[in-house]
Amino acid sequence: MAIVKPVLAANWKMNKGPAATAEFFADFLARHQPADDRTLVFFPPALSFAAAREATAGRPDIRLGVQNIHWERSGAFTGEISAPMAAEAGAEFVLVGHSERRHLFGETSEETARKVAAALAAGLVPVLCVGETLDERRAGRAEATVREQLDAVLGTYPADRTDSLVIAYEPVWAIGTGETATPQDAAAMHAAIRAQLAEAFGAERAAEVPVLYGGSVKPDNVAELLAAANVDGVLVGGASLDPSGHAAICAPG
Ligand code: PEP
After folding, report:
1. Do 83 and 121 meet the contact criterion of CB atoms below 8 Å apart?
2. Residue 183 to residue 228: CA distance in whole angstroms
3. Is residue 1 part of a domain?
4. Ligand 1 pocket, 10 CB below 6 A?
5. Mutational pocket test of ligand 1: of 93, 104, 177, 236, the residue with most ligand atoms within 8 Å of the beta carbon
6. 169: in domain
7. Which helix (H) or strand (E) holds 10?
8. How far apart are the first and last CA of the chain?
9. Which of the residues in the chain have pLDDT under 70?
10. Quick check: is 108 in a domain?
């Protein structure tokens, strides 16, 4: 299915079991009417995925993804899930390289590249998360860090699959901290990302790839972030856990 911009994505992280997932959607779906001018994606925990699928049956405007995959299809990888399994369960998207995976679980850029390839092979859309730490920003290395993280994936990404790629710029210092990049900061980094996509795929294909902003997005700052140049959507963590707040974030502007 096509990805219509803006993309409004919800990363629930390790929050909401199956019962809380069903409760969330009962409330959220009553508040949010289907709209074909945007794409809504939810990333519940893997154990709540079936509950999310059941709760959103009959609402094709609500699309689902998983928060992580292993790059192998199957095997002795205790605790992991694979891309084909996620696709079979009904996932269309997968987060790859979220900063919590990179910084808390030691995921490397080489691993993100393998996960992106596995996602594509299984027909999942990878949402590749990139972003600098505060130290990297203070050292003037924000753009270089993001460039390296993107390079690791774009070097081998097939140019004819740009319709199946989403990038999320999430400055690590803005995730879960209440600090948000200014729309100007976001626009500057998004322009750099778009330029790098154009180097890899050409300007026309680069323009197709939604580049989302993430980091303390809330109902009261989403409009100004979405209005920034090259910002094609948002990836929302904490604020997406509340059905009324998230419905406000997803409401047509
Ligand atoms: C995230 O986890 O992707 C995120 C952006 O979190 P928060 O909105 O809570 O900063």
Report:
1. yes
2. 6
3. no
4. no
5. 236
6. yes
7. strand 7-11
8. 23
9. 253
10. yes
> Rounded to whole angstroms, how far apart are CA atoms 86 and 69?
8
DSSP state of 161: G
Q: Tell which residue, 56, 63, 71, 60, has the closest CA to residue 8.
A: 63
Any idea which residues carry the catalytic annotation?
Answer: 98, 170
**70 belongs to a structural domain:** yes
**In angstroms, what is the span from residue 212 Cα to ligand 1's centroid?**
12
Q: What is the CATH number of the domain that holds 171?
A: 3.20.20.70
- Spatial neighbors of 252 by CB under 8 A, at least 6 apart, are 35, 37, 38
Q: Express each pLDDT in 21-77 by its tens digit.
A: 999 999 999 999 999 999 999 999 999 999 999 999 999 999 999 999 999 999 999
The total number of structural domains in the chain stands at 1
Instruction: Determine the structural domain holding residue 24 and report its residue range.
Output: 7-250
